[in-house]
Write a structure and sequence with these properties.
The chain is an alpha/beta fold. Helix content is 40%, strand content 20%.
Length: 316
């Protein structure tokens, strides 16, 4: 079960931790490999229940990926857990060669991505990870939006025939999806319908996109909100539908404006059906401040998203 951390807000790491224990209970091949992150990955209970199925390599992200690849080669089902900023930057070559090129069945979980570490600054912000990983062939990249999607993405990743990277947020988020929602790797989901503009979002920004759509609906703007949890492979059919049916697109993500979800959507749009677009995210290195303040500073709020929609509609 996920833990309530505020008024109807949840920490997706709780969903990750509880799902992980259930998967390990069901399949004795499941092992966890982490880099001195038992506490921050919420693996304390897993370690107590399965002490011989958790490998802590210390602060050595390249070794982390190599060990996981070796375990997968030996028939285990490794799940890697480490801070996304260090895991993806320091272990990038190993993710590329040991996992993607070698087609290793490893689930890599980047914990506390985006600006979740707040005041620790740009050294700990993970706002480039999706861009780095999206460029690697044969690697699925997933950015869940709430606890339900985090759980389902982890279960789907373990069944996938190849490596998967999952961003696991620590920033408190509301539950976005209703009962009955089913995550499918490589597929998007329409959260709201509309014919004037489409907002494509994922991760912590999905709830804010839905809030922005509500604001816009009050002003007579029909806003379609598309959840795009899988950035690679992208749901190209849904992107094309957004362009053809609404004629304008705004993307929003807790990531750099270069190379992430917005970049992926823009590549698809310019090749398939060019329409006016706006890409919301972080323009570059950020100042020091809390995660909440950094999002507000960068315009990643419902009001900021709505303003971007107003702007793109002027060029439709």
């Amino acid at each position: 079960m996920t833990t309530l951390v505020g008024p109807d807000l949840f920490d997706c790491r709780d969903a990750f931790a509880s799902t992980l224990q259930d998967l390990a209970q069901r399949d004795d091949r499941v092992v966890v490999v982490c880099s001195d992150s038992v506490g921050s990955s919420k693996l304390v209970d897993f370690k107590k229940r399965f002490p011989h199925r958790l490998v802590n390599v210390g602060i050595a992200e390249q070794t982390l990926i190599g060990v996981a690849a070796g375990l997968a080669n030996g028939g285990k089902r490794p799940i890697v857990s480490a801070a996304s900023c260090f895991l993806t930057a320091r272990g990038l070559e190993q993710i590329k060669v040991d996992l993607a090129y070698s087609h290793a069945k490893v689930v890599v979980c980047g914990m506390s991505p985006g600006v979740a570490y707040g005041e620790l600054g740009p050294t700990h912000h993970s706002i480039e990870d999706v861009a780095w990983l999206r460029a690697i062939d044969n690697l699925a990249v997933v950015v869940p939006a709430d606890p339900k999607e985090t759980e389902q993405a982890l279960r789907a990743a373990l069944l996938h025939d190849g490596p998967v990277f999952i961003r696991v947020s620590r920033m408190p988020v509301p539950s976005v999806y209703a009962d009955g929602y089913q995550f499918v790797l490589g597929k998007s989901f329409r959260v709201t319908e509309g014919s004037d503009v489409t907002i494509i979002a994922n991760g912590t920004m999905l709830a804010r996109a839905v809030e922005a759509a509500t604001l816009l609906r009050g002003r007579g703007v029909g806003c379609r909100v598309v959840s795009m949890p899988t950035v690679a492979p992208l749901d190209l059919a849904e992107v094309r539908a957004a362009a053809e049916e609404t004629g304008a697109i705004v993307t929003v993500e807790e990531h750099s404006v270069r190379g992430g979800l917005g970049g992926a959507v823009a590549e698809a749009v310019v090749c398939q059906h060019p329409v006016p677009m706006r890409i919301l995210g972080f323009p570059g290195f950020l100042p020091t401040g809390s995660a909440t303040w950094l999002l507000e500073y960068s315009g990643l709020t419902a009001a900021g998203i709505a303003a971007a929609v107003d702007d793109v509609l002027q060029h439709k």
